[in-house]
Amino acid sequence: MATADDLKFQEFDDAANLLAANPDATTISIDEPVEIPKNQHSRLQEPGREEDDELLGTDDSDKTELLAGQKKSAPFWTFDYYQTFFDVDTYQVLDRIKGSVFPVPGKNFVRLYIRSNPDLYGPFWICATLVFTIAVSGNLSNFFIHLGKPTYHYVPQFRKVSIAATTIYAYAWLVPLALWGFLMWRNSKVMNIVSYSFLEIVCVYGYSLFIYIPTAILWIIPQKVVRWVLMVFSLCLSGSVLVMTFWPAVRDDNRRIAVATVATILLLHALLAVGCLVGHHCSFSLVSCFLGQVACCGEGKEGLAGHWKNSSVKVPVILNVAKIDASATLTVLVIN
Amino acid sequence: MAAAEGSGAGETLFPGLADMSISQDIPVEGEITVPVGSNSPDEDYSTLDEPVKDTIMRDLKAVGKKFVHVMYPRKSSALLRDWDLWGPLVLCVALALMLQGGSADSKDDGGPQFAEVFVIIWFGAVVITLNSKLLGGTISFFQSLCVLGYCVMPLTVAMLVCRLVLLAGGGTVSFIIRLIVVGAMFAWSTLASTAFLADSQPPNRKALVVYPIFLFYFVISWMILTFTPQ
């Protein structure tokens, strides 16, 4: 006879625990987005098995595969197929953004918020907002720095938008592709318990970029120290979201490969953060750089020599849109 | 026949008709065609035969009526029902032309080029329309493009005002005037397009649809505000 408890909607954790007790049972759960994050937070107080289950997602991969198969049944050339990737409500998007900005230690972003419903709305529009925020606030900070100088001629620097857009979208799509391919390859060699679909990885990367939007707005403050502190802070926050997501996926692997993978993820993320900071207050033109040099440092051989030294290494930055060439980025860093 | 059978059976099926008889064949005549009421006066001649002025004026009136709808945004279905893309094209070309001649110390550092403005407006409108349709909106593709294009009109007016103010000279006062004008027109554009588009969205996703529209008009406003002549 079904008790009241059986008839109630089983919470995510309960289902995982029941299944751990009886691994052969098949479960079907209907995803109802009803205050699940709040319940999860209240369950946080119990350490131990629930945490492990959350991080490992022991039986989640089965459920994920099952639900993924049920969702995307339309063929990929129909409009309905893509509509399944936008099946989110406003509060779900806001919850996911909140989860990426305030990472709870020990909680997996994908398991907690994505829950086999990855969306493309968040990644796409967060990247678009980030591109325009960097361009606009970079323009503003440039304007404020040179405010009052008589020789300064304001330029809108529209070229910055195209370069920023290419970089950020390439990062948000190509790095997850590479990571997904790498995880699939390791999965074939070592039986990993946790595996993510490509869209879930894109989702995590997209939402982890959200913290850079308020950071880019705060970069208008002209102090160099403040900018670097802000950048390191946001890098830590978003990096921790990525690490907590991907560590369970690789920790069953060879120790060195696991550490190398996580280190690469963090390194690429740091490169993007540094690239954003550089692109924000560095202008991509030789002429305005020249004007800035002449205005700030005064004429003289020292100023002009400095200009030519700067200009010769700015050219690789203009040509480098993929931001894979780390040496060029570091050289630009040295100048700044 | 039924009456004959009925009377033959001794019981009439149709008592009132029992005493009716048709003695001879009466030829039936009349018209079988069902008259269709012609509801338009030009049924007699197609629009191919009307004067060119009428054709052009009809389209111009439709475009002008939509401009008026944008200026006083009420919930009217005229903008949505008879969509056309003439207005957006004219506005986009006008805006892109006015954004030319921006300060260009070098090719890299100037304002947006004509092609960039064009691409941003049209590509942005297409992306927003796709976004709203993917989120489950019931509006059609071209209707949404039409609304988004027509709502660029306040920003085109702002661009005109900015150019006139800049003719009088740059400086802090002119910047403040331009900021106020562009800000007001940006709010007008966003509110007008939201008034037309918000009804066709599912209720719990309205914010998800309105935010890209906000971003779109914000980018255009930014391009207008940062325009500095040579």
Describe this structure in words.
- Chain A: Belongs to the YIP1 family.
- Chain A: This is Protein YIPF.
- Chain A: It holds the Pfam family Yip1.
- Chain A: Keywords: Membrane, Transmembrane, Transmembrane helix.
- Chain A: InterPro entries: Yip1_dom (IPR006977), Yip5/YIPF1/YIPF2 (IPR039765).
- The complex is a heterodimer of chains A (336) and B (230).
- Chain A is mainly α.
- Helix content of chain A is 69%, strand content 0%.
- Chain A is built from 17 helices and no strands.
- In chain A, helix 10 packs antiparallel against helix 14.
- The longest helix of chain A has 31 residues.
- Chain A starts with a helix and ends with a helix.
- The C terminus of chain A is likely disordered.
- With 230 residues, chain B is mostly helical.
- Chain B contains 9 helices and no strands.
- In chain B, helix 7 runs antiparallel to helix 8.
- The radius of gyration of chain B is 31 Å and the shape is elongated.
- The N and C termini of chain B lie far apart (100 Å).
Quick tags:
heterodimer, A: 336 residues, 17 helices, globular, disordered C terminus, B: mainly alpha, 60% helix
Residue-averaged pLDDT of chain B: 80
Query: So what's the overall shape of chain A?
Result: globular
Radius of gyration of chain B: 31 Å
Seen as an oligomer or otherwise, the chain set is heterodimer
H/E element sequence of chain A: HHHHHHHHHHHHHHHHH
Radius of gyration of chain A: 24 Å
Got a strand count of chain A? Answer: 0
Q: Order of SSEs of chain B, N→C?
A: HHHHHHHHH
- The residue fraction in helices of chain B comes out at 55-70%
Strand-helix topology:
The complex is a heterodimer of chains A (336) and B (230).
Chain A: H1 4-7, H2 12-21, H3 36-42, H4 49-56, H5 60-71, H6 79-83, H7 90-101, H8 109-114, H9 121-145, H10 159-189, H11 198-208, H12 212-218, H13 224-250, H14 255-281, H15 286-297, H16 301-319, H17 326-335
Helix pairs in contact in A: 9-10, 9-11, 9-12, 9-14, 10-11, 10-14, 13-14, 14-17, 15-16, 16-17
Chain B: H1 2-9, H2 52-71, H3 78-81, H4 86-98, H5 114-134, H6 141-150, H7 153-167, H8 172-197, H9 206-225
